[in-house]
Amino acid sequence: MAGNLPQDEVLIERFNQPIRVDDLMTLRPGAWLNDEVINFYMNLINERSKQDGQSTLHCFNTFFYSNSLLPKGYAGVKRFAKRAKVDIAKCEMVLVPIHLGVHWCMSAVNRREKRIEYWDSLRGGPGQVHTRLREYMRNEDAQFAKEEETWSNYIPPSDEAPLQKNGHDCGVFACSTAECLARGAPVDFDQEDMRELRVRIAASILDGKIY
User: Fold this and answer.
1) Which among 2, 43, 30, 37 has a CA at the least distance from the CA of 194?
2) Checking CA distances to 64, which of 96, 130, 135, 193 falls within 20 to 30 Å?
3) Is 87 a catalytic site residue?
4) Considering the domain boundaries, does residue 159 fall inside one?
């Protein structure tokens, strides 16, 4: 994928984030995706949404939930949206990567449906995801004197969510789920698509646009 280049060589740098050879190598079949790849891809989704005039969508990075909201509550994340220059109270969709030790999932705050979605390719439980994201949205809306929403919890039924059949493709499932949700498309890929999706994510990163 990156030939014989040094592992620490920078292949592309955007969004104030370098992608090195060893980052891109996590997209090889059988490898676990790292934070750098997932965060870069989330930024590409954000950029595509802005170019398409969909300023009501935002993807947070991998540090938002597991490193900040979960252990620290709203105090740990209250500046995330401001730094990203995003008004969460106006967002119709907020996508949040969830890292559970050795597993990646995706969560979505869907304002149109008034629900907090939890997409787990291994069908695990959501833990505190619904509670914490509801707390976050309540605080964000309060800042702008927006009427508080009543959020329902949503875990997609098995026929709407792809099932992971190994222990290493979770990051690809999470990124691909975010990409589908961001454009309002069904999450209709499956385990057999993983090799192609890894290549597509790598190409998107190297070319700087979503494929």
Assistant:
1) 30
2) 193
3) no
4) yes
Q: Does the annotation count 91 as an active-site position?
A: no
The residue assigned the tokens 């994340």 is 77
Q: What is the CATH number of the domain that holds 118?
A: 3.40.395.10
Which residue is associated with the tokens 């595509």? 48
Q: Does pLDDT of 109 surpass 80?
A: yes
The residue from 59, 91, 170, 175 that is catalytic is: 170
Does residue 9 sit in helix, strand or coil? coil
Q: Is residue 5 part of a domain?
A: no
Q: Domain span at residue 95?
A: 10-207
CA angle 80, 89, 14 (to 5 degrees): 40
Residue that has been written with the tokens 């994928």 in this structure: 1
The active-site residue out of 91, 120, 130, 169 is 120
Averaged pLDDT for residues 23-50: 97
54 or 196, greater pLDDT: 196
Number of compact structural domains in the chain: 1
Asked whether residue 18 is assigned to any structural domain, the reply reads yes
Task: Tell me the percentage of the chain whose pLDDT exceeds 90.
Answer: 86
Of 99, 103, 130, 175, the active-site residue reads 103
End-to-end CA distance of the chain: 17
Residue 40 lies in a domain: yes
Measured distance CA(158)–CA(25) in Å, rounded: 31
115-151 pLDDT, tens digit per residue, is 999 999 999 999 999 999 999 999 998 887 677 789 9
